[in-house]
Amino acid sequence: xxxxxxxxxxxxxxxxxxxxxxxxxxxxxxxxxxxxxxxxxxxxxxxxxxxxxxxxxxxxxxxxxxxxxxxxxxxxxxxxxxxxxxxxxxxxxxxxxxxxxxxxxxxxxxxxxxxxxxxxxxxxxxxxxxxxxxxxxxxxxxxxxxxxxxxxxxxxxxxxxxxxxxxxxxxxxxxxxxxxxxxxxxxxxxxxxxxxxxxxxxxxxxxxxxxxxxxxxxxxxxxxxxxxxxxxxxxxxxxxxxxxxxxxxxxxxxxxxxxxxxxxxxxxxxxxxxxxxxxxxxxxxxxxxxxxxxxxxxxxxxxxxxxxxxxxxxxxxxxxxxxxxxxxxxxxxxxxxxxxxxxxxxxxxxxxxxxxxxxxxxxxxxxxxxxxxxxxxxxxxxxxxxxxxxxxxxxxxxxxxxxxxxxxxxxxxxxxxxxxxxxxxxxxxxxxxxxxxxxxxxxxxxxxxxxxxxxxxxxxxxxxxxxxxxxxxxxxxxxxxxxxxxxxxxxxxxxxxxxxxxxxxxxxxxxxxxxxxxxxxxxxxxxxxxxxxxxxxxxxxxxxxxxxxxxxxxxxxxxxxxxxxxxxx
RNA sequence: UGCCCGGUCGUCUAAGGGUAGGACAGCGGUUUUUGGUACCGUAUGUGGGGGUUCGAAUCCUCCCCGGGCAACCA
Length: 569
Prior knowledge:
This protein is α/β, with parallel strands linked by helices and 569 residues long.
């Protein structure tokens, strides 16, 4: 052993894998399983967010990697909060992310099985009906540092318990009057083993089983058994379920079920946002955002509406890794993944957000010239488009500066810049109104500097995007900033709403765009394929769901990296 | 103050007794008709103390720090 180097046989070198893959490799190597089956188990009480995307890529990714499969199972054991609206959105989001489940299942599919499991525990003297109030139960539960004590109902006979439990099912008792508890150990150091509740009475309508049931199993009594019924080999959940694992195993052992095993990983936390479904719901209900799919939301539907691609989200999930330590991922990684994908697929277009007029004084009156510009320099197969140029254009207001520092590469009096895909121009004059605001910039162009056939020898440091005033169309552009002002709103003192970023949305209601966007929109309407854009020198954009051919509306997916802005900080 | 987890660059994540590596972020360059992209370079890390060992991020031990656990939520 000593002295042998790991490099002597490269094929023996371990490929880096996360701890779940190590577990699976071992299970497979030891013959514990021949293949694997995982499951993604959302509760249909809210929309999926980027944290769920991590869980989805972990579960489905493992299923794929090992040639196994993954079930989609809705954990619908609490009818009060659950709804088919959420079921539908969850299915859509999982598929949009690019995954296909083997079976679509519901914990509620197993209500009858679960009931029988409960009867078995009762017959085996391992469960009892407790008539105590929830306060009494809590009082007898003890604390993490002090053991609990037995309920006075703990010694009921199996017959009595079975009778009571069947009558609970029959609807003889009101909500909260009785529960079924597992009989384990009131002095266990694990609070969850202190005779946990496994069935409660809820006279509530269930989104799938309707009014068929008035007793519902708790998470602990449903999840593991559902896994076992489906022969799930690896039941992967987040860290907060760690202490549930002992209970999970107890049920499987006592009920003699398929030995599914639970493993826990650290959930995703993303900087400058929140992941709590409850808080997300509050943002929606209190109208701090436009809905679950508001482009500022960390929901899958929000990211989709904003223009994130499934590929970029998958890549993000792959890069953050899977481990057991708490984490707070820098949102810049998500943005990097978006840019990385979008750079290769986004169509380049020119849009001027905050326009100022620029007149080329030596342009032949009435002349319109068609210029060619590449749709995507990263992908020659996307070809070129024609852009009309007639000597009077809009440029961005901040692409001009009257007193410019040396490092400023854009327009200023006497300076020359390239107009993207057009000519080099030199600024000669500025027109201002009474308040000193620039109303018109006057330039000359250099006829021999035409893009692609430049013989002028003039070197322009900067290149500006522009739109012909005559041909421009008006569009609405929405830019987004982080939803919260602080890195970790969940950790902050007081109400998380106090940390909402008031400037998370900037609307440009009348931006000027090149007319190609109209053609694109028509094409998209016909093909159903909505293109991703890069508005040059601005960022990546995607048509909003509210966009129509009469009024195009674009969401900023993510801005371009901006080293100039950084220099000026 | 009980039980259970965890602690490696700023942020994530590898290294399974043998050179602490990668990514993002940062910084500095080169190229560029996007201050984009691409490419190159660069700084920054094993929570602390004791052990075991020729050798420790890795094994043992004590301590420190962070998280979870007292819903008829999941």
